[in-house]
Specification:
binds zinc ion, two-stranded antiparallel ribbon, about 0% helix, 5-stranded antiparallel sheet, mainly beta
């Protein structure tokens, strides 16, 4: 299983595809598929059939999973896309920091 750098509740920016440049919050991750679901990103329309007689069918919009490789994390501090860098603290603890502003992310 490939390790994913993107986690639930991260803010990400889309690097390619029809939603390029859009930002959103990660709703769920699917590490097995290397995909994530991002709020308001990669929306697809699904036709809903009427369930009951007399009920109208409709189109519902829903987020479809998108490959994590098409996304980049956005630093919550400086709001810039970044790949987190690993920083070793004095006590040997490793933290992830933003390469742009140095904030722990
Ligand atoms: Zn930053």
């Amino acid at each position: 299983m490939k390790k994913m750098s993107i986690k639930k509740d991260d803010t990400v920016i889309v690097l390619s595809g029809k939603d390029k440049g859009k930002k959103g919050k990660v709703i769920s991750v699917m590490p097995k598929d290397g995909k994530v679901v991002v709020e308001k990103i990669n929306m697809v329309s699904r036709h809903q059939k009427p369930r009951k007689q007399g009920e109208e069918g409709g189109i519902i919009k829903k987020e479809a999973p998108i490959y994590a490789s098409k996304l980049m994390r956005v630093c919550p501090k400086c709001d810039k896309p970044t790949r987190p860098a690993h920083k070793m603290l004095a006590d040997g603890k490793k933290v992830r920091v933003c390469k742009k502003c140095g904030a722990e992310i």
